[in-house]
Amino acid sequence: MKHTPSTHTNFVIERAFAATPQAVFQAWADPQAKRRWSDCHAEHTIEYRLDFRPLGHETHQVVYPDGRVQQIEKVFFDIVDARRIVFTYDIRIDARRLSVSLVTVEFFASRRGTRMVYTEQLAYLDGHEDRAQRMRGTEESFDRLGLDLSRQ
User: Fold this and answer.
1) What is the pLDDT of residues 13-27, one digit of tens each?
2) Counting C-beta atoms within 10 Å of the first and last residue's C-beta, which end of the chain has fewer, N or C?
């Protein structure tokens, strides 16, 4: 069996929101709010749980129309109210781990509300790579976050 080395990459996404850092942070902390904006395949979700505290977990499981099962498991390591969230997560399809990430989300007060800086460092496993797709999905989630915040 041929050994395929892991590959590594990272990306940073910055967003401005017309809401306070506390409101943006709360959108990450509240399970109902988080589910509204963060789940890219909500119609196929069969399990979602959020335990938002240090060493708490977030679990999201999806069954696609073709029968594949995607599992995302997050562990929160550092949470500072309205300032910072640091977590890791992995993505598995049919129990095959595709990637593991370290994410830091920071919230900064600005004249118009909040500047949020999202930094993701990824380790891709066994030849899997989807950086452009991952960035696009994350940006689409943040578009939904902005819409959700504007409705409040």
Assistant:
1) 999 999 999 999 999
2) N
Bridge partners, residue 61, by sequence? 47, 71
Neighbours of 29 (CB within 10 A): 17
Mean pLDDT of 28-44: 84
What's the whole-model pTM score? 0.93
Q: In whole angstroms, what is the distance from residue 31 CA to residue 4 CA?
A: 37
In tens, the pLDDT along 114-142 reads 999 999 999 999 888 888 999 999 999 99
Helix axes 31-38, 131-151, angle to 10 degrees: 130
Interacting residues of 125 by C-beta distance below 8 A, sequence separation 6+: 6, 97, 98, 99, 100
The DSSP bridge pattern shows strands 96-110 and 113-124 to be antiparallel
Assess contact for 21 and 105: CB atoms under 8 A.
no
CA-only gyration radius of the chain, Å? 16
- How far apart are the C-alpha atoms of 89 and 87, rounded to whole Å? 7
**Measured between alpha carbons, how far is 103 from 23 in angstroms, rounded to an integer?**
20
